[in-house]
Amino acid sequence: MRARKTAIAASACAFVLLGAGSALAGTGPAPAPDARKTQSTAPSPDGNPNSTRARAAGVCADAYQIGTTAYIDRGGAHAASVKQFYSPSCKENYGYVWVWKSFRDKVKDYDVSTGVYSYSRDEIVGQDWWSQTNSAEFWSYPADTADECTSAIGMLRAPGDALPGQAKTSKRC
After folding, report:
1. What is the DSSP letter of 95?
2. Using CA atoms, how far apart are residues 73 and 19, in angstroms rounded to an integer?
3. Contact 93, 126 (CB under 8 A)
4. Reported confidence tier of residue 62, pLDDT bands at 50, 70, 90
5. Helices (DSSP H) in 19-120: which residue ranges?
């Protein structure tokens, strides 16, 4: 019985020492490598780093979401999602905006922007803009901010709106 208790205690200590892995750009574990391998090139509300638009923006294929999802609201309803992504192989962050279908069905030719806000630089890095678009998926350029505290930011402006709706994700360090 004593040997069994010792073996259980030793196993528990080993698990504590080994850990579950870590995300380089913030707290919490990185997804398992197999979970990040998306073969599809289709755009996705979750953010697909293998999509055609992500590849055009220079997003690395192993990018995954870090931090919380933020929402741009218009008229009391969610119009778009804002997310921050991190690539361990490229050591870069990306901003991501997904404009919801309910908004796209009602509003045409809107303006969108996304980027990564660096708290230490007090500036938006990797920002890109799109004017008079009807697309759903938007990726910022790569932001060399892996060693900085960051948030993804997104802006959405419908025709006739004087100011854009905007949102930022949680701060990640």
Report:
1. E
2. 39
3. yes
4. very high
5. 33-36, 52-57, 101-106
